[in-house]
Design goal:
Elements: H1 9-34, E1 37-38, E2 46-47, H2 51-58, H3 60-96, H4 102-110, H5 117-128, H6 134-141, H7 158-183, H8 187-195, H9 200-211, H10 213-229, H11 232-238, H12 252-261, H13 275-308
Antiparallel strand pairs: 1-2
Helix pairs in contact: 1-13, 2-3, 3-4, 3-7, 3-10, 3-12, 8-9, 10-13, 12-13
GO biological process, one term: transmembrane transport
Transmembrane segments: 9-29, 74-96, 108-128, 157-179, 204-226, 276-300
Keywords: Cell membrane, Membrane, Transmembrane, Transmembrane helix, Transport
Length: 309
Amino acid sequence: MKKRKKRPYLWFMLPGFIFYAIFVVYPIISAGQLSLYHWNGIGEKVFVGIQNYVDLFSDEQLMGEMFNALKNSLTIFALTVLIQIPVQLIMAYIIFSKSKGSNVLQVAIFSPQFISTPVIVFIFTLLFDGNVGVVNKVMEMIGLGEYTRSWLGIPELGIYIIWAMITWAGIGVGMMYFISAMKMMGADCLESAYLEGAGFWKRLWYIILPQVKMTIVNIILIGYIFSMTVFDYSYIMGGGASGGTNGSIDVMALFFYRMAFGDNNPLGGKISTNSVGMGTTVACVLFAMIFVVALIQILITGRRRKDNA
């Protein structure tokens, strides 16, 4: 008989596994179960099967609010991918290359990460306020006074202002990921490119980018998860009632909050008799959206590692 191999490392993994099972796996399974019930969190639970999901995707008002929130969340994600991530990559490259003033730039970019969300919202309120806002004052100074607006009162601009807050506060985080990825690269290829006459931007395009592809994929995934789960900016700016004027800054996490805890959710004025049931249903739909994208990212990463093996 073959002796069973001892695996002492399993005992070191066990506490983390138990912790993960209690605080991650169990809540996910519990939420899935609750989404199958009609329940307000206090009274008796009534099993309704998939009726909550049917109501969510068939009720005109519920579906309209959910797709509006989803559109706004995807708008934040699209702006993050098209603008924020390229800017993060360029700033990381400037700092990695130790250009003049790069240390000051690094501190200036990363420091907003330590400012609380309410303070950030207050700062942007002062910037875009129609009466005392800095943006309008600057426009008046440079002769563009006719274009001044009460920017915070324009619904079409609401989600873009939310994205601007998010970007200003968190752009340094992705930048640090890119700097770390660049520091793990071999210096030989950059030195060779420099000796061959490749300029600053050519080295970025032909040397840096190919070697940080997987970091870009990971940052895109993080950006997607954050876009789907961001809550505090929209809540502070527009409150939990409706997500701003005409739902202009409503996002998926705020929509979930309104279903589960809002005093005037679409289910019936005050907190409805099915607030927990419908709220967990929205949470499960949101989880599925994130899980599918994360699974695709894992498959891409695994295939990439096999190709490099």
